[in-house]
C-alpha cells in the first residue's frame, strides 16, 4: 500500500512522478486521502462479494502433483526460487543458486499427460466445477502416438535455420519459395523465433537459442535512427537478416528496429520476448552463466529503462503506437493493448528472477516490484470483463469527477458494441483489448489472454474464467482452425476508419479476426497451466487435420478459420514450431516451467470469484 500523500502521487497503486504533486494537489483536496488500495477496495466490495472457491477446486492439479512428485534433476539449478517470488522479499533477498526445485508448473503432471484422473472425473461431475464443461471426454484421453506431422515439422524447422559464420542464430520467418513477394519473410524475427527457440530447448538443443540471444544483444548496442531521430538505447530489433557474400566469404547482419518496417513502428514486444526467452533458456538448461554476464544484465536493464522511466503516465500500463507487436499494422490497438501489457508483466517478472542484486540491479528490482504491484492491480480490475462487470459498465454513470468515481475512465455505455452482449457467457471472462480514457476496446485478443495466464497476471480464478470462455465460445474463438488472433473482426465503415482501408486486414482475415496456428502453443501452455489439457488436445486435433496438408500456412481466413489466408505464406516457421511446442508440452507438461510463472503469494488476488461463475 502506498499512502500517496506521504510520499508521492498515486493512482491505484501506481506512483506518479514527484513533479506532478503540486499540480494534482491543487486539483484534489489533500484532506481526501486517495490511496489505490482504498479505491480498489471500494471497487471490489461493490463488484466482487463472492465466496472464494476452495483452493483444491481451483487448482486441482496442484493437489494431484503433490501426490506423485518427481525426483529433482540434479544437473540443473534454477530460477524457481525467485519465480515463486514474493514481491516484498524480492528487494533484499540474496540471489540463490539452488538445486532445481520444481514448481507447480514443472512438477509431474502425469495425469494431465495421460488424460484424466479419478479426481478430474469427480470434478467434471461435481456441481459447480468448471472442468470439461463442453469438451467431449474423448479429447481428455491420451493419444500421444507420434503423429507423422511431427517428423515433417522438425525437418521444416531445421530447413528454416539461419547461420552466421557457421553458427545457427535463428530461424527465418517463412521458407516459402513459391511466394513471389519475399518482403521481410526471409528475416529472423525476434517474436517469431520464440516458438522455434522453445522447440529447440525442449528438444535439448540450446545452442541456437544462446547464439540468438547473444546476437540480438549485440544488435541492441547499435545506434538506431529513423531519419534524424535517435531511438532509445534499449530497443531490440524486430528482425535481422544474415547477408552471405559468396565471393568474399563473409557474413554480415542487417537489422530492422522499425526504421524499415511498414509503418515505421518500433517493436515494443521484441525486448520483452528477449527477456522471457533468456529466462526460458536459463530455466531449461540450468545454465546461469549466460543471464549473469554483465552484457545480459545490462541488456535487461536497458530494455527495462525504456518502460520504467517516469513521465506523463497516469497508468502503470505501457502506452504504445499501433503496430508495435504481433499485430504489426494499423488495427486500432494503439493505446494500452493487452498483448503488450501481458508481455510487459511477464518480462518484468522474468527480469526480477534474473537481475543480480548488485548496486545497479537493486535499483531496477525496486522499480519492478512497485510497477508489478500497480500493473497487476490495474489490469485485474480495469481490463477484466465478465458478465457481472459488463452489466455494471452497461449501467455506468458518466462524467463523474474525483476519486470517488466508479466509472474512472468515463466509458460511455453507448460505446459498448452489440456483439459483446451476446458473446459474454454467464460463466467466463477475459481481459479486454484496451482501456484508456473514454475508450474500452471490448475485442478478445488471444495472445494477451494466454500470456496473462502464463505469467499469472490473471488470478487463478480469472485464468479459469478465460478457459471457460474459450470452451463456451469455441466456435467463435477457435472454429475450425486454432486460434483467432482477435474476435470479432471489424468491417465496413469501421474497417475503413480503424485500419485506414488496409486491404490485407479485411474482415476475418490476417490480423482482423484471422486464425493463426502459431497461437496453438500459447493456448496449450495455458491449458496445461489451468489443468485443462483436454482443450489443447481438441485444438491440436484440428491443427493435425489440416496444417500439414495446407503446407503450414501463416494464417487462415473466414469466420470459422476455414480458408487458407488470402496472402498467407506457406511453410511459416512459427506455425511449424508452434505445433511442435504444443505437442512436446502435452507429452511432457513439465516443459511449461520454461514459459510459465507462478502467482505471487503476496499479491493477493483482489478479485474473487465472480457471481457469473456460480450461476
Ligand atoms: C507478420 C506478423 C508479424 C510477424 C511477421 C513475420 O507481419 O504480423 O507478427 O512477426 O509477419 O512472420
UniProtKB/TrEMBL annotation:
One example of a Gene Ontology biological process annotation: sucrose catabolic process
Protein family membership: Belongs to the glycosyl hydrolase 100 family.
Role noted for this protein: Invertase that cleaves sucrose into glucose and fructose.
Name of the protein: Alkaline/neutral invertase
SUPFAM superfamilies in the cross-refs: Six-hairpin glycosidases
Pfam families: Glyco_hydro_100 (PF12899)
Broad enzyme group: hydrolase
A GO molecular function held by the record: sucrose alpha-glucosidase activity
Reaction catalysed by this enzyme: Hydrolysis of terminal non-reducing beta-D-fructofuranoside residues in beta-D-fructofuranosides
Species whose genome carries this gene: Brassica carinata (Ethiopian mustard)
The entry's keywords: Carbohydrate metabolism, Glycosidase, Hydrolase
Keyword Signal among UniProt keywords: no
The protein's Enzyme Commission number: 3.2.1.26
Amino acid at each position: 500500500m502506498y499512502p500517496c500523500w506521504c510520499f508521492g502521487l498515486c493512482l491505484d497503486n501506481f506512483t506518479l512522478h514527484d513533479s506532478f504533486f503540486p499540480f494534482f494537489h491543487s486539483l484534489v483536496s489533500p484532506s481526501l486521502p486517495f490511496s489505490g488500495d482504498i479505491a480498489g477496495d471500494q471497487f471490489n466490495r461493490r463488484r466482487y462479494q463472492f465466496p472464494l472457491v476452495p483452493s483444491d477446486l481451483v487448482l486441482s492439479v496442484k493437489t494431484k502433483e503433490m501426490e506423485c512428485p518427481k525426483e529433482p534433476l540434479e544437473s540443473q539449478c534454477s530460477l524457481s526460487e525467485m519465480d515463486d517470488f514474493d514481491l516484498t522479499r524480492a528487494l533484499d533477498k540474496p540471489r540463490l543458486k539452488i538445486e532445481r526445485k520444481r514448481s507447480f508448473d514443472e512438477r509431474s503432471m502425469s495425469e494431465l499427460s495421460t488424460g484424466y484422473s479419478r479426481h478430474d472425473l469427480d470434478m467434471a461431475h461435481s456441481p459447480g466445477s468448471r472442468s470439461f464443461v463442453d469438451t467431449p471426454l474423448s479429447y481428455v484421453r491420451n493419444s500421444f502416438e507420434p503423429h507423422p506431422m511431427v517428423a515433417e515439422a522438425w525437418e521444416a524447422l531445421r530447413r528454416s535455420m539461419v547461420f552466421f559464420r557457421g553458427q545457427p542464430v535463428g530461424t527465418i520467418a517463412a521458407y516459402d519459395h513459391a511466394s513471389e513477394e519475399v518482403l521481410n519473410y526471409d528475416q529472423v524475427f525476434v517474436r517469431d523465433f520464440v516458438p522455434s527457440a522453445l522447440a529447440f530447448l525442449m528438444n535439448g538443443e540450446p545452442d541456437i537459442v544462446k547464439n540468438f540471444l547473444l546476437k540480438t544483444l549485440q544488435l541492441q548496442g547499435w545506434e538506431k535512427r529513423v531519419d534524424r531521430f535517435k531511438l532509445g538505447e534499449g530497443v531490440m530489433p524486430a528482425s535481422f537478416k544474415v547477408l552471405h557474400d559468396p565471393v568474399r566469404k563473409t557474413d554480415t547482419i542487417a537489422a530492422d528496429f522499425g526504421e524499415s518496417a511498414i509503418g515505421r513502428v518500433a517493436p515494443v514486444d521484441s525486448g520483452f520476448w528477449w527477456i522471457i526467452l533468456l529466462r526460458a533458456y536459463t530455466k531449461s538448461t540450468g545454465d546461469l552463466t549466460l543471464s549473469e554476464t554483465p552484457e545480459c544484465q545490462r541488456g535487461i536493464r536497458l530494455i527495462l529503462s525504456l518502460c520504467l522511466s517516469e513521465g506523463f503516465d497516469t497508468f502503470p500500463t505501457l502506452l504504445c503506437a499501433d503496430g508495435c507487436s504481433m499485430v504489426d499494422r494499423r488495427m486500432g490497438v494503439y493505446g494500452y493493448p493487452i498483448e503488450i501489457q501481458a508481455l510487459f508483466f511477464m518480462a518484468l517478472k522474468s527480469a526480477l528472477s534474473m537481475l543480480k542484486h548488485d548496486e545497479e540491479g537493486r535499483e531496477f528490482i525496486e522499480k519492478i516490484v512497485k510497477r508489478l504491484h500497480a500493473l497487476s492491480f490495474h489490469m485485474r480490475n480495469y481490463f477484466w470483463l465478465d458478465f457481472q462487470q459488463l452489466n455494471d459498465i452497461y449501467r455506468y454513470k458518466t462524467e463523474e469527477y474525483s476519486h470517488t468515481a466508479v466509472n474512472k475512465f468515463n466509458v460511455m455505455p453507448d460505446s459498448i458494441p452489440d456483439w459483446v452482449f451476446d458473446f459474454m457467457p454467464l460463466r467466463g471472462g477475459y481481459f479486454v483489448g484496451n482501456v484508456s480514457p473514454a475508450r474500452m476496446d471490448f475485442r478478445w485478443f488471444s495472445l494477451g489472454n494466454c500470456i496473462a495466464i502464463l505469467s499469472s497476471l490473471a488470478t487463478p480464478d480469472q485464468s479459469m474464467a478465460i478457459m471457460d470462455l474459450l470452451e463456451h465460445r469455441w466456435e467463435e474463438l477457435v472454429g475450425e482452425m486454432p486460434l483467432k488472433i482477435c474476435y470479432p473482426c471489424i468491417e465496413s465503415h469501421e474497417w475503413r476508419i480503424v485500419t485506414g482501408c488496409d486491404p490485407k486486414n479485411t474482415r476475418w482475415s490476417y490480423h482482423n479476426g484471422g486464425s493463426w496456428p502459431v497461437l496453438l502453443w500459447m493456448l496449450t501452455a495455458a491449458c496445461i497451466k489451468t489443468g485443462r489439457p483436454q482443450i489443447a488436445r481438441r485444438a491440436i486435433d484440428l491443427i493435425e487435420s489440416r496444417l500439414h496438408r495446407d503446407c503450414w500456412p501463416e494464417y487462415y481466413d473466414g469466420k470459422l478459420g476455414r480458408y487458407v489466408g488470402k496472402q498467407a505464406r506457406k511453410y511459416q516457421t512459427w506455425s511449424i514450431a508452434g505445433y511442435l511446442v504444443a505437442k512436446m508440452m502435452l507429452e511432457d507438461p513439465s516443459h511449461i516451467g520454461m514459459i510459465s510463472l507462478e502467482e505471487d503469494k503476496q499479491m493477493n488476488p483482489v478479485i474473487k470469484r465472480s457471481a457469473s461463475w456460480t450461476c
